[in-house]
Amino acid sequence: MSEMKIGVIGTGAIGQTHIERINTKLQGARVIACADPNADFCKSIAEKFSLKAYDDPKDMINADDIEAVVVTAADNFHEEYVLAAIEAGKYVFCEKPLAPESNACRKIVDAEIAGGKQLVQVGFMRRYDPGYRQLKELIDSGDYGAPLMLHCAHRNPEVSGFTTEMSVENSLIHEIDVLRWLLGENYETAEVVFPRTTRNAEGELRDPQIMYLTTESGIRIDVESFVNCKYGYDIKCEVVCEEGTLTLPEPANVMKRVDAARVTPICRDWSERFVDAYNIEFQEWINACKEGRVDGPTAWDGYVGQVTAAAASKARDAQSVMTIEFDEKPAFYN
Amino acid sequence: MSEMKIGVIGTGAIGQTHIERINTKLQGARVIACADPNADFCKSIAEKFSLKAYDDPKDMINADDIEAVVVTAADNFHEEYVLAAIEAGKYVFCEKPLAPESNACRKIVDAEIAGGKQLVQVGFMRRYDPGYRQLKELIDSGDYGAPLMLHCAHRNPEVSGFTTEMSVENSLIHEIDVLRWLLGENYETAEVVFPRTTRNAEGELRDPQIMYLTTESGIRIDVESFVNCKYGYDIKCEVVCEEGTLTLPEPANVMKRVDAARVTPICRDWSERFVDAYNIEFQEWINACKEGRVDGPTAWDGYVGQVTAAAASKARDAQSVMTIEFDEKPAFYN
Amino acid sequence: MSEMKIGVIGTGAIGQTHIERINTKLQGARVIACADPNADFCKSIAEKFSLKAYDDPKDMINADDIEAVVVTAADNFHEEYVLAAIEAGKYVFCEKPLAPESNACRKIVDAEIAGGKQLVQVGFMRRYDPGYRQLKELIDSGDYGAPLMLHCAHRNPEVSGFTTEMSVENSLIHEIDVLRWLLGENYETAEVVFPRTTRNAEGELRDPQIMYLTTESGIRIDVESFVNCKYGYDIKCEVVCEEGTLTLPEPANVMKRVDAARVTPICRDWSERFVDAYNIEFQEWINACKEGRVDGPTAWDGYVGQVTAAAASKARDAQSVMTIEFDEKPAFYN
Amino acid sequence: MSEMKIGVIGTGAIGQTHIERINTKLQGARVIACADPNADFCKSIAEKFSLKAYDDPKDMINADDIEAVVVTAADNFHEEYVLAAIEAGKYVFCEKPLAPESNACRKIVDAEIAGGKQLVQVGFMRRYDPGYRQLKELIDSGDYGAPLMLHCAHRNPEVSGFTTEMSVENSLIHEIDVLRWLLGENYETAEVVFPRTTRNAEGELRDPQIMYLTTESGIRIDVESFVNCKYGYDIKCEVVCEEGTLTLPEPANVMKRVDAARVTPICRDWSERFVDAYNIEFQEWINACKEGRVDGPTAWDGYVGQVTAAAASKARDAQSVMTIEFDEKPAFYN
């Protein structure tokens, strides 16, 4: 079967990573073009990877030889390009968030439904991490009873230029998606509290934060966001079920016995921690598109994620519990 | 140095354990008498351990040859016997709670102060667990910065005759004491929430529960209480500090490779999990009494524990955050 | 760059796995033909994967459109097909062993040298396992001093139709290659001893066995081979260095707390344990061939492996230590 | 029951540790006297612990108020004092080795048998370590089938003034005893090999060494002795059985997440690693003596240990396998 031809919008670090991934590691597709508002930079990247450069992403979206689009542009432009791809009837993989505002996400959902075909996938790569997949399989087996509580943490060694708002919007959005997928049910309430702030937080930043979520069946989730934890990039998830608990595995690293200790390395950044997840995510996306379907996180998932994040942000600003109100799920996504 | 002579009030399971512990495992003291409202049963236990039996605990407290008293009677009787011991000028080790009501605890505190000498120790044995002691030493070293969050769990395999109230009062009271000791600061607020209830909870019992505590410096604590977790007796405590996290160790057990898994046993009950803590607690109590002092959890700690538990109970009933109000700490306890 | 066209010799289980791997998971190559002495079976596999079927593997090797060959035929046929590929000037990936007899391996080495170009790679996939690669990187860093001892185990849950000879030749051959690669030096002596035999060994089989190897610099290696260990497929490697030890990581699996134990799954077979290693091995082989070189285990490595295995087999039969004699390494392989 | 009165021979570091242990931590006994060839030093220790000092250990052994003796004198004097204790009909706890020469051990055995009562216990404290006890219980359960192989290591961070001979005689003697106890059967052969020597070994010292032992039923044991491993004091024992393996637990220490790693401390010396074992060993010895029996390692165990160590030493010097010849076990010890 011939390779699916892809155009990438946004040629920054993430965009380049995806170009390299698709063109040197994965199978069945090829990035043949790229587009970026910064025309000169776009040209340099196009040369580096032997791609065709477009000044206007929409021209690329509408080009005859482009079958699918990857959107890694700045968040504010996601809506415009995803809608253009839908209009052109092309598959579109959009990095999270689908759009910063939930009503923009809703607009995308409506456009996709109007077009009559699922074309949009959102880049929630955690669902492809082998550890989370094991967790989901074990939960779904029913062998441990219903999940009752989730205790999670999302820690970065350090960040700069980070604001209090970004903990929910940039970090915890990953947990918002992956935990809902893991549990197979929607959230009902959100709350965000501020523990004592670390001396390592810059300026006005409140770090760490803890987000509490509850689900329709009453499952209670706590997720710590700690973006200046100093020690490493660390993702924890413990699922407490009625007859046992399940813990997300640590990455497999060599254990050293040295300096009066057993020492096992922890990752320093997300790209190292989730490299397998990214590869699997894109390979499965390519495979599904070539079979004429989307089987990853949908536009609806993108909408639900942003509604939840918005409620959590409101809860954080108000320092009180917020009820989360979703539109009814369209039958289109069942 | 001669052995300290001890009388034990309450000859139930716990009382017998302590008699056996002091008389066959520890050094420097001897239980020579016991007292219990159930006179016949008391006599049978006295015979078993070759002790003198008293019908009235107060007679035993006031007996000339008794130097120290251990109170393991029903909670409601703690106040009466502890006050009697203070009046008799004798050391008294009282199982938690010091008294169910915080004003009863305060009365004991006042009596002890009036007596002019510290005589009371409360049975919060977690402070003697080698793992918690390691945690405290590491926190106090300052090498990891200030603690910001504590994530804890207190799980029992199953219970019967347990009520929703007992999660705070019987289970979480241990964390209330040990975490305050670990951090060296008082609590400010308490909250108790109800996750989805396990199908394994009897009757009206809400199980699991999560208690949230905040401290004076803003440290935020979550403690899961899950008394029907089914899988084992399990105590978890992770201290998230500014430059690293510290995790309470698992008990040292043989790891088996069997049946396609690495399998390491978990305890089934608290007496197994904390056997070392109990031994160390009583040995250190005996040693301190013989040197004329009390160096374990004081009557004031007992008071603070009950005030905190009362606030958490109120918070649970009201399903809202409660501020915790303590009396000012008397200089007597500094 | 166009896809490298591959023909696979041997359409049994392993052959099919490689066809599927190359054609659905990896990039840059495509299996377009297969050959097997069992012509009917070969045809059915060819149909299944839409390949061209050849009755005679040599016809396929010499076909104009075939650029590289994968040999998964029965061990005895390896020599013939690898030599044919060398003669045809085509890259050839040969499953281990390169050939059962070391003089056959030597013949391949000589043919390759005579041809003037490295074309042969041997399927020692352990070198591609991420855990072993971490070990090698840490050893090579020199941070832990020189390796002094290696303690290893290679365990299978159970086997049937296995003979005492096969422990060295089929199982331990993997350690023979990967440990030499890890240490970067040759072996000097081999010994094989028989511990107490498990009641689960069939017939005359001696199981477990332990192979001892020493290297040029005096490093001492013990490798347990236990093919009926019952509990799972388990690979262990501890490298004891002058200033620390390094342990091969366990696969990353969910830890469950259930039934009074912490339980982490162990694989049941090698294909699950080394699936990543196989994928990386073939992708790197494809990439290297397309760049005109071989950078995996060479024909010389295949020769050295068989010489070592032969010495170990002799040592086992004689129940004494054998010195291992290698030809001098041809400059061609430096 | 009154306290058993003990005299300690040898007032060096170990002797003092035992005096302090018995007099401040354990129950049912009291050290009341000490003896040491260095009379002045002996007096100073006697004063420190309020003991009676004896110039001649035999006077102390024969003193009316001494009921039991602990021998921690230099190895060469063990025989003389143990025999004197047997003659005096007093319980004697002798630190390992019972005597450096196996025929001296045999002499003690014969004297004890002639005396008609078991009085001697040898200080092999590993049998009292809770981890080894768990191992023994699991092996004896039969749930995992027969043991087939043991893989062990005994590592010290560093030593000075150590000779090649001492690895067997001072370090591995502990494994010689505890593994035989664990398995419940005698050894048949011993061998000691020299891996590459660490650059951290002083002078002519060969370090590390590996001892191989086989047992009557064919179980094969490897024990690494590495006295300059640099990283810590570390004891490993893996028992490979027919249907599973069992691993000696690591000490329970806080795990830290810090500096991009999970870090769990390892002990730095044996006294820290085996402090519980020593306490249990002496408490059980006291309890047994007071009940009129010896239930720890016997004089016969001391004899068997030295015979095995002598064979291992001979095997090391000859660099070949030695068969171990024991006298027949006297019925007295069944």
UniProtKB/TrEMBL annotation, chains A, B, C, D:
Domain of life: Bacteria
The protein's annotated pathway: Polyol metabolism; myo-inositol degradation into acetyl-CoA; acetyl-CoA from myo-inositol: step 1/7
EC number(s) per entry: 1.1.1.18, 1.1.1.369
Pfam families assigned: GFO_IDH_MocA, GFO_IDH_MocA_C
Domain Gfo/Idh/MocA-like oxidoreductase C-terminal residues, every copy: 136-317
Keywords carried by this UniProt record: NAD, Oxidoreductase
Reactions catalysed, as given in the entry: myo-inositol + NAD(+) = scyllo-inosose + NADH + H(+); 1D-chiro-inositol + NAD(+) = scyllo-inosine + NADH + H(+)
InterPro entries (UniProt xref): Gfo-Idh-MocA_inositol_DH, Gfo/Idh/MocA-like_OxRdtase_C, Gfo/Idh/MocA-like_OxRdtase_N, MI/DCI_dehydrogenase, NAD(P)-bd_dom_sf
Gfo/Idh/MocA-like oxidoreductase N-terminal domain: residues covered: 4-124
UniProt function note: Involved in the oxidation of myo-inositol (MI) and D-chiro-inositol (DCI) to 2-keto-myo-inositol (2KMI or 2-inosose) and 1-keto-D-chiro-inositol (1KDCI), respectively.
UniProt record similarity statement: Belongs to the Gfo/Idh/MocA family.
Subunit note: Homotetramer.
Protein name: Inositol 2-dehydrogenase/D-chiro-inositol 3-dehydrogenase
